[in-house]
Design the sequence.
């Protein structure tokens, strides 16, 4: 055995000498990894700091409770007590005599003079003062005796955690601004911003570069004017706000030069030529919004308008930082095998493509609720869902439709961040009310999707083909999920027992990254051990593979470092694309408010039915052109009051709003969820989906658009008008 091992080691060493390029490849991997980290590390540190910041508040509360339970009166021991200055051994008789002698002589002609001091009253007062002084000294001595080395160590930790939380709260706006600029700049550099059509031709790239250069010039002009207004107002500008002003100025100036560079430097794979008019579809949506809103504010004599509304985003910094966390969560989930193993439990049943599509859309609802928005979920897991549907034999058009809808059904379920925002901005509703009705809306939309998917099935495709051993294989496929269930239970139990924190709409952005990192760590350790056992590697070979961090292994056996690096690198471009779009949506909402477009909506309706019809139309249009968070803010300020005044129940109105938004995200010409689906599945699959249906009828040629539209439109009509018919509002 020893000889065999030594021989294996010798072969390995020979192989090292046989392939001199292996060292160069390894060095190149290290260089590439360093370059990736140079772009990803700042965003990674911000996201980790946000997790630590939010965790520190919970940790601090638990530390205070622990300190009070161990040392009674710990709240008084958090700081060194100040020694009382009074004299606990005061001679009362001498002090009485001293004060009597110090009293001014009586003037019999001064009618308002104070009477001479009464020795007895003075004695009683000084006796009480002496007792109080002795008590103060006693408490001081007791507190000093209680401040042991253990207390000093514990309170240093507790105060450090408290200070971390305070620093975080004061820098949240700056953190968000840095995240927007870094991630937005990375998305610009990689040409990854969201557009109606990807850049393919030379004309597409140049038109997009010019549009983005103009957009950032408009943004630069706006933030510069906003800075001048703030610094010339005659009021001291807080340091945090001053830093923000200069950050925006520098952050929007640099992309102008990047856009100029991209105008001249076109990717080698770009197709020559192109149409100028068609190239307009390749202009990122945020750039179109920035140019349009910026020009409106400039011509209306308010050039700082875009910057002012962009800074409203900073007032909700925690919300948008959570958006970044949710995208990162999605990218981490994408790199685990957990979703794949969940899908595996359905394979033994050989479900028909339409039924399997319904099952996956239902399964996607819960993670959608935890990722806070349909678009975020499509970015995170849409590619995997599409792949699984194609493996099951689902036609491409149906697979694209299900992928786009995978994030639409769960936005009304607990603990969706969007619903939390609605409740925070509108005192008329609570999260419990909204989530309670959300379950009913979810069941409705799920049923409708299943109905239309089965109604439009093709031929015999909807007939399932069960294996004889289907149930046996089903239970076998459940076994690999047991470790995941244990890990999830352990992590949640640790948070519950140690931090009194439970997985809900408030803690989800903080707990889920830790949970996924624990799962990824388990997978890497399990895969690593399994690999070593299978190959029966000797110690030298094992050391070499570990030194290389398994970088040369296929996906699923990557090192923890590589997984974190790649997930963060992928997340930052999506974060940048989403946050820039959200920021410009805030500006678009400002245009709507300043132009008083909502004033054209009648305030008084003769019929609640008419009011609902008008509001539904407006809400769908808003969903078509704005991101969900900016849209919620706009509706809360401008439309919600009109609905309440028309007699529509607040809970009913917001359920209608959420469904209308989802219909808007699936509706052309923008159809944001379809744009995100295209990004994650690739242009080639979209092209093949069109070729696949040549010669088919209208429905099958456009199924990816029509199936989600019909499903959500039917749901919207039912949610909007059936409650009115039964007298709910």
Sequence:
């Amino acid at each position: 055995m020893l000889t065999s091992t030594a021989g294996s080691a010798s072969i390995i060493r020979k192989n090292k000498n046989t392939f001199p390029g292996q060292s160069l490849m390894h060095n190149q991997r290290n260089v590439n990894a360093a370059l990736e980290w140079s772009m990803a590390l700042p965003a990674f540190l911000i996201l980790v700091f946000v997790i630590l910041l939010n965790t520190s508040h919970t940790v601090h509360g638990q530390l205070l409770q622990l300190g009070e339970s161990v040392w009674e009166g710990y709240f008084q021991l958090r700081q060194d007590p100040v020694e009382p200055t009074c004299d606990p051994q005061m001679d009362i008789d001498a002090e009485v005599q001293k004060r009597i002698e110090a009293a001014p002589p009586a003037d019999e002609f001064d009618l308002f003079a104070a009477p001479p001091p009464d020795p007895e009253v003075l004695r009683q007062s000084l006796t009480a003062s002496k007792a109080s002084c002795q008590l103060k000294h006693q408490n001081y001595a007791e507190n000093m005796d209680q401040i042991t080395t253990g207390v000093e160590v514990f309170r240093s930790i507790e105060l450090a955690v408290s200070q971390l939380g305070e620093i975080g709260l004061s820098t949240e706006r700056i953190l968000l601004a840095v995240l927007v600029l870094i991630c937005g700049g990375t998305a610009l550099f990689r040409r990854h911003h969201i557009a109606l059509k990807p850049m393919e031709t030379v004309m597409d790239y140049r038109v997009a570069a010019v549009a983005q250069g103009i957009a950032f010039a408009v943004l630069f002009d706006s933030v510069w004017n906003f800075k001048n207004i703030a610094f010339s107002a005659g009021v001291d500008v807080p340091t945090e706000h001053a830093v923000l002003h200069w950050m925006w100025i520098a952050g929007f100036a640099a992309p102008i030069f990047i856009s100029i560079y991209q105008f001249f430097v076109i990717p080698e794979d770009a197709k020559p030529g192109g149409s100028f008019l068609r190239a307009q579809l390749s202009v990122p949506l945020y750039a179109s919004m920035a140019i349009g809103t910026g020009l409106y504010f400039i011509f209306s004599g308010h050039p700082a308008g875009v910057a002012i509304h962009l800074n409203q985003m900073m007032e909700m910094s925690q919300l948008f930082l959570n958006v970044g966390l949710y995208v990162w969560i999605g990218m981490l989930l994408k790199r685990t095998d957990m979703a794949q193993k969940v899908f595996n439990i359905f394979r033994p049943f050989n479900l028909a493509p339409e039924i399997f599509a319904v099952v996956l859309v239902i399964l996607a609802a819960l993670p959608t609720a935890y990722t806070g928005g349909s678009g975020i979920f499509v970015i995170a897991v849409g590619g995997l869902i599409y792949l699984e549907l194609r493996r099951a034999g689902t036609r491409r058009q149906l697979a694209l439709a299900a992928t786009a809808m995978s994030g639409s059904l769960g936005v009304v379920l607990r603990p969706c961040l969007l619903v939390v925002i609605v409740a925070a901005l509108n005192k008329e509703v609570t999260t419990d009310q909204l989530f309670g009705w959300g379950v009913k809306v979810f069941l409705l939309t799920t049923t409708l999707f299943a109905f239309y998917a089965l109604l439009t099935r093709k031929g015999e495709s909807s007939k399932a083909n069960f294996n004889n051993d289907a149930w046996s294989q089903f239970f076998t496929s459940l076994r690999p999920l047991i470790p995941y269930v244990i890990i999830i239970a352990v992590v949640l139990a640790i948070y519950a027992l140690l931090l009194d924190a439970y997985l809900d709409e408030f803690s989800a952005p903080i707990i889920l990254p830790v949970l996924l990192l624990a799962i990824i760590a388990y997978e890497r350790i399990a895969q690593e051990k399994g690999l070593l056992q299978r190959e029966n590697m000797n110690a030298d070979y094992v050391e070499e593979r570990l030194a290389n961090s398994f970088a040369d292994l296929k996906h699923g056996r990557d090192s923890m470092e590589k997984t974190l690096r790649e997930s963060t690198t992928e997340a930052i471009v999506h974060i940048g694309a989403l946050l820039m779009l959200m920021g410009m949506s805030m500006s678009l909402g400002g245009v709507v408010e300043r132009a008083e477009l909502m004033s054209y909506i009648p305030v008084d309706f003769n019929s609640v039915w008419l009011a609902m019809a008008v509001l539904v139309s407006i809400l769908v249009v808003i969903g078509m052109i704005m991101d969900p968070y900016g849209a919620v803010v706009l509706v809360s300020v401008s439309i919600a009051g009109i609905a309440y005044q028309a007699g529509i129940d607040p809970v009913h109105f917001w359920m209608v709003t959420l469904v209308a938004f989802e219909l808007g995200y699936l509706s052309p010409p923008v159809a944001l969820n379809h744009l995100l689906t295209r990004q994650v599945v690739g242009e080639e699959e979209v092209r093949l989906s069109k070729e696949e249906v040549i010669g088919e009828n209208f429905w099958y040629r456009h199924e990816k658009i029509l199936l989600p539209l019909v499903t959500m439109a039917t749901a919207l009509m039912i949610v909007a008008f059936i409650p009115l018919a039964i007298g709910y509002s």
